[in-house]
Amino acid sequence: xxxxxxVFDSGVGGLTVLRELLRTLPQAHYSYLGxxxxxxxxxxxxxxxxxxxxxxSKFLVEQGAEFLxxxxxxxxxxxxxxxxxxVNVPVVGVVTPGAEAAAALSRSRRVDxxxxxxxxxxxxxxxALSTWGIRTTEKACPLxxxxxxxxxxxxxVTEHVARIYLSELGLIPHGQREDNRxxxxxxxxxxxxxxxxxxxxxxxxxxxxxxxxxATAQAVTQIMNVTPxxxxxxxxxxxxxxxxxxxxxxxxxxxLGAQFLGRAIPxxxxxxxxx
Amino acid sequence: xxxxxxVFDSGVGGLTVLRELLRTLPQAHYSYLGxxxxxxxxxxxxxxxxxxxxxxSKFLVEQGAEFLxxxxxxxxxxxxxxxxxxVNVPVVGVVTPGAEAAAALSRSRRVDxxxxxxxxxxxxxxxALSTWGIRTTEKACPLxxxxxxxxxxxxxVTEHVARIYLSELGLIPHGQREDNRxxxxxxxxxxxxxxxxxxxxxxxxxxxxxxxxxATAQAVTQIMNVTPxxxxxxxxxxxxxxxxxxxxxxxxxxxLGAQFLGRAIPxxxxxxxxx
Lengths: 275, 275
What we know:
Two copies of one chain form a homodimer. Chain A is an alpha/beta fold.
């Protein structure tokens, strides 16, 4: 029997997680919900994000999801417990898998974390990484999401903004914080993987980028106790169904979403959620 | 008897309109609602913006407003008719007053308009200005709102972005579109007045900035048939009450809002609106 997996994000960023899931678990059925009418979550309060995330999660379970992936850093950081309490299916968020991947990679035992204002204010990554004895420096990067949404992925303005954020973290210029420097930069927002080429170019040698998408997909396959299909040469095309739901313009979701999913999005259903 | 005026925006930008109203109509009672839990409106669809704007407007009328000011360009551009149909009080939006002020100022009969993606896509300003025989060029500037919200009002990154937008309009470098050039730049978003110092510095001589805030306040005083108090030397302090409502963090509203209102905001009440 094929597992029905619900994947939820405030918008299209979580499609980077779905893309990884399609590689590691191509045999599952997927329903993806982007709550675009109420995005962004990252600038809003914990109470509001929790209300939105719970109603979105319940929708996916009502649609038949037997497993929920919260593919949104802000919703995971602020509302994972409340989501788990509101549904009767297993729930996996992106924070723990991302933190575990960063901890496994860091030799200096220092990780820098970037994310939305709400994710950073929650200190969810600092708490998660401290369980592995990792020290963190956190930095909210509120302009990265609008820049990515504008399509300015590798643009002089985005480089300008990234240089400001990375230098405020002390990651650049190279050598400024040489002693005891972080050797991993954790991308704590599902929009940020699209900035990887730009960020990689700016970072000094010896600093690795980690995003939660691949780590979360691995965690899901482990929990489901199936063998990942993501072996070299053995990636198979998805064999399950793929459904997309959005709370605002389906056309905008299709257009913007394709670059996050890495493939065309065929059809998107417009739904409305209770406040 | 003092008039009760409701002022509505998706967030804090409409406080620039309230600031002008407090100068021209200091004797009124004001209730201001910022629908911050669902902002921004400017990147969302017409149907979603209309639903949000109608529920927000109804709230203000339920609170006793006898007159509504839609201090949000996107809500005015996309939903003014629907708002008028949903309440039993007079409604004034920012588009017509702003367009009228720009038309009165333009000698070249050409006006350039900047705003959110949704406002520009609606062509509301082009339609309004065409009734005065004015030709327009429109340009969506989606990064201006997040830059202002970040507090990067007069910042190298904001200047970088503004140079790109203004050069795409052909307004800079000076002389590029000398023939038949627009001599007015209409700021079609209530966040943009905070960028006036920066934009003024970049624009060539002979191009004036117009924002809807002052023009809207004048229109309201005209409709109410009262004499504006905004005479030189005769500005009086507000004598009515001033209430603020928000759908997300009151603390964030107070902090961010003060720079739009130009004065401290004492208390903000958190409310929830029907979806």
